[in-house]
Every structure is written in C-alpha cells, then in structure tokens.
C-alpha cells in the first residue's frame, strides 16, 4: 500500500469514492482513510510519521535543545495563587520534573495543614494521555466529583471521592463532559451525558450517591444542532441547565435546595436570541442580544418572572463596545468589555455611588477577570499580560481602588528583560477597504529591511478572539530574530460582534482575504518578505491555513497547520461526526445548495490544485474528536499527488492524543520544539 524509503515520501493508494449532492459529483480518492481501525490506515499514519522523523532527523539535536530551553524558562516547582471558596483555600501546584498538576486545599487559613485532593502524576501513571477536569466539591466540603479522560477525545468518566477517607466510590458515570454540580443536599449530583457516536452533550442526568442504576434523566436536548450543560449559580441558589447553539440559547433553572423538583424553563428559545444568566439577590441578570443589541446589553428580571416580557435594561447596547461577560459580587457588578479591540474592566456599585474603569496603558495587552468565586468580597481578582509582559495575578480592592500584585509569572532565563522587546499594533487594508488590526512583538534593534523571519498567526472563527498574550515558549523564536504577529481577522470578535458576523457563513472568505491582506502589508512595510514569511493556525485556524495556501501560496515560505479542519464540505454533510450539526450556524448547512456551493468554493481539500505550495508541516491526533485525523491525512495525500514543487510536506500524527495534543506540560513542549525546528530549519538557523 505504501512505498517507503529514506528519500521518497509515503504514497497512499487511491480508491475512488463518489460523493454526490445537489447533482454535483465529487471523487474522493482517499475517503477510505476514515476507517480508524483499518490496519492500512494505521500503517499509512505510521509511515508518514517515519518519513517526517527521517526528514527532520538532522534537527533532532536542535529540537532537544529547544525543548530544554523552553522547559528551563518554566518554574517547575510552581503553585497558583490560592483562592477561597466555602471556607477553604484552594491551590494548584507543580513539582519539579513532573508533568501534571497537584490539587490541594487548606481550611480557613493558609497557615493550616495542606489536604491533598489529587496528585495527577500518580493518577496518570501507565496512561499515554491523562486529563482531569470538572472538580466539584460538595457544599459540606466532604465529597468531590471529577472527570477523567485517558484518550484525548474529551469523553470523561466521572468519579466521586470521599475527602476524609480518600476512598473513591464505586459510582462510575461514563460518556460525560466531565463536569458535574452538587445539589445543596450533598447527596445529589447533576451531570451531562454525551452521545456515544457524535459526542454531542445532550442529556442531563440526576445521580444519587451509591445508586447509579437509578440515575434519572431530567432533561434531553432534542434538537441536534444544540448542546446542553449543567452548572450551579455563583449564588449557590440554583442548578442551571444551559442549552446552546451558535445563535440561540435557552436555560432551565431548579432551586438547589430541592433536587427532587422540576426544572423550569427560564425563557423558551427564540432563534437568534442569545442570552446568558447570572443570579443575584432576588433577580437574574441577563446578558443578551435582544432587540438587535449586536454587541449585547445587560438586563434583569425578578426570580419569579423570568420570561422575556419582564426583562428590563440595566446597561444599554453600545455600537462601539462589546460586553463579553459579568462578575457579580454582593456590593459590586464587574463588566468585562471590549472597545476598539482592547479589553476593559468596568466596576459599578449596585447602589450607584461609583462606576469606573481599571486603567491600562498600551495597545497590545490582555486583561481578564480571574477566579472570583467569593460572593461577599470587595476584592476583584484579575489577570494582566501583554506581548512583552509576563502574566500577573492581581487583587484589586473595588472600594479603596488599591491593588496588590499577588504573583508575576517568573521567566527563569537570566537573559530575559521585557524592556528588550517591542510590541505594537498596526493595521492593514483588506480587499473591501476594511482596516484589519495586527499585534506584533519583536526584539529591539530589528531593522525593517525585508530580511526578518516572521510568523503570522490567526484563528478567525466562532467569534473566538486571540488577544495579545505573553508566551515564554515564543521567546525561542523572538531571540533568534523572528517577528511574531497575531492577525485579528474577521471571524473573531476582536472589534466587536460585527467582526464575527463579517467572517462566518457566506462571509467566511473574508477571514482568508484578511489574513492575506495582512501578509501583503507586512511585506510591503518591509517587516519581512515572502521568502521569510511563515503562517500558522490550528483547528479552524488550520482551515485558514489550507485556504491561504490554495489562494496565495507564493506569499509564504512555510506553513504550520495544526489539527486542521480542511475537508469542510464532506464533514459538514456527515451528521454522524462530532460537532457537525452544531456547526451549521457557523459554516452553513451544505444540505442547502447555496451553502454547499459556497463551502465547496473554499474547502481546502476540494481546492488542491497542480501548482507549487509552500513548505508545510501538518499535525493531527489519532483520537481527535473535533477535527478527525483523516482530514489532514487525506489533505496531505492529495497535496502529495498534485503539487508540482519539491518543497517539504510533512504529516505528524500523535497516535496517543486528541485535539489538544499531548497532555503533560512538558510533553506539549516537545511538539512546540518540533514545530519551531521546522521553521528555524527553513531559515537556516540551526542553534
């Protein structure tokens, strides 16, 4: 099936498979790769791994050096800033040489003895992948529920442990999201079940301790374009079921003191009505796009009358400010906003005596409210970092307006000085005249002579915004002369909700042309040139990579596409694949010919041509539940078949992981080192 040698890449066999929709016939020669269990599929993936390893063998020593360099910057024996919840201080820490976190707590005072909750290093022994999630402590602090995934498919088994005896109960709840919420009786647990085939979270169950056979289905989401989740309000008064799709929300609420009661619908779903709810005192506060509030507004309604006709306005909609979220405290309301692409934190007293913004002073920073589980406090915890400034965790007194920096990320590199780096925000002009922002960082003294290697990164889907953040890993590129650029293309929400709307559905191609326009601008302004320009994106950002190499391959010397979503039309027609039905409002439903034709016109796999492509490294995970491994595998096979150049094309499959890659904090650095070595090798940088 596969021809292999040290020089020639694997050649996958072709088995023509006819796909027909709307009278349009496509022939997919590599459709057979969908069979995950077929030995020839595994052989092919292993052969590609062997080929990638053989071709990059000369960089192995450099990869090891890069890995050690990245690892050396990380404080290995680190711990989080403690936060207090329900009488206990909770701490997450790492120990030297160990991959996984250790979770502990201390009762009332940080001077008290430490109680071990979980040592994930011991729990992960013998597992090639390990992820613990959804830690939920019972109201009486005696029990903890938690989820474990050992495949990387984000399919968790929930366990329950007695925190006094450390005995794990016999209860095993499989095929879940991993998260769960306790009722106030300390004996009833609500959790979300996943469909075993599509992995859609769609059922909410009630579990009574020690009696799994009697688990009761309390809600089932019947619309396969929706998912469901369950959580507890910060006020601890309500268990809340959230039903969600790309464009529509619905919530159901239950008094947490009455787990045997019936959930009540908060406001029935209306297509296009997005809302989220928070509870305070005797009201619910609602963040919503009601009445064409594109950038969202804040409303409230009494607990007793939650239907939409009872909602009243608290903060009005503004065309130039996106409301991203709220944090509710006893005396304060904190609003996370975004204006002209920049994060802002607004603080209002409930009694109306104060209303102000935290001050920030540059254009390439990220700030965000952090863990704020204490309802009674006047302290707001938030995080701050920038492209040049390591992350700080800050406690801000909302009454006195004073702050304490509790922790600044340590960069264990004696040569690191944040003043040695420059960050800036620049704007390119898209094809339709829209100004597209970019956040850049590079080392001081750099000359704009067109000779600088530059890595341009973007995501650009789901309204997900990639803010300018600090990275110790990235220093390995910056210190070797690279410029790093985050391109804030349409499809994200960097400039507000309209920025997202401008890069989805029948506007999706704006995401791709925005990225290319930014590349052209960077070359024109002599930050770099096409022989030194590199592009990188993952998942939906990998779709972006596939689109740009089809439409403007001459602009890039190299491209890294991580877990790329590249077989868009076939995937969106297959409703048995995880996520497909829930994505119709993002990409369009190709069962409708209008969307079929549009998606087909940009789907990377369908638009591979006989022409020259840049050097490319493509990565995937065998157990990926979000972008199935066969998409990048098929794409590479088709590229090998048609491309007319002799440039590098590598496919690297992690045979033990899923969408997020390796699970250990150091194992993931090995993947970073391999990707960086690929880029640096193309620049002739070997140390």
The biggest sheet amounts to: 8 strands, mixed
Mean pLDDT: 94
Instruction: State the share of residues found in helices, binned by percent.
Output: 10-25%
CATH hierarchy: architecture of the domain at 433-683: 3-Layer(aba) Sandwich
Number of separate strands:
37
What's the overall geometry? globular
CATH superfamily of the domain at 433-683: Alpha/Beta hydrolase fold, catalytic domain
Low-confidence region ranges: 1-5
Name of the CATH class of the domain at 433-683: Alpha Beta
Instruction: Please state the oligomeric state of the protein chains shown.
Output: single chain
CATH topology of the domain at 433-683: Rossmann fold
Portion in beta strands: 25-35%
Number of helices: 12
Distance between the termini: 38 Å
Strands in their spatial order, largest beta sheet: 30-31-33-32-34-35-36-37
Rg, nearest Å: 25 Å
What class would the helix/strand composition place it in? alpha+beta
Domain Peptidase S9A N-terminal: 10-409
Organism: Winogradskyella sediminis
Protein name: Proline-specific endopeptidase
Pfam family, one: Peptidase_S9_N
Provide a concise account of the structure shown.
The chain is of the alpha+beta class and 687 residues long.
